[in-house]
Each structure stands twice: as C-alpha cells, then as structure tokens.
Specification:
Helix content is 61%, strand content 0%. The protein is mainly alpha-helical. This is DDE-1 domain-containing protein.
Length: 94
C-alpha cells in the first residue's frame, strides 16, 4: 500500500506540475521505492495492520489515523475533477 501511495503521489505531483508522466516503472525504480518504503513506512504498526487484514490477528487497533490517505484522496478528486480522467482514460490521456 505504501509503495502504491508513493508511486501515485509521484504521478499526481507530475500532473500538477504539468510534467510528463512516466508510464512505465522499471525494476530498478521499483526496488528503490520498495527500499524507501521499508526504511521509512514499514513500522511495527503497519506490519500488525497487514497481518490483521490478512486474518492472522484478532487484535483490534482503532487508533489508526489515515490523514495521509484522506489528503491523497482529495488530491485525486482534484485531478479527476479537471475533466481529463474518465472511465476510458489511459495513463497517457491523464
């Protein structure tokens, strides 16, 4: 999830700056991004949540704040609202 967030943030940032959006992610970049995720985003809490979602834990942890998710969703709504994103749109259209 954190990996996808990083890639999506990068795409949204490029769109906001009217830059060219890279359509392909190469193995080297993917590994570099996964490394960043592991070093900074893969906290004990994140790992617990993964196990919980996978059905391996019966712990309840309702203290999660998904502020970052909310911010990302709002940015997506902004990009989506500019009319360039439709159900038929491809990444190159965006």
């Amino acid at each position: 999830m954190h990996y996808r967030k990083r890639i999506l943030k990068e795409i949204i940032s490029a769109i906001e700056k009217f830059e060219t959006v890279q359509e392909s992610i190469y193995l080297r970049k993917a590994i570099a991004e996964l490394y960043k995720v592991w070093k900074s985003d893969a906290t004990a809490k994140t790992i617990r949540k993964c196990f919980k979602r996978g059905g391996f834990s019966n712990q309840t942890d309702n203290s999660d704040s998904d502020d970052e998710d909310a911010i990302l969703k709002e940015k997506w709504k902004t990009v989506e609202g500019n009319g360039r994103i439709t159900d038929e749109a491809t990444l190159s259209d965006i």
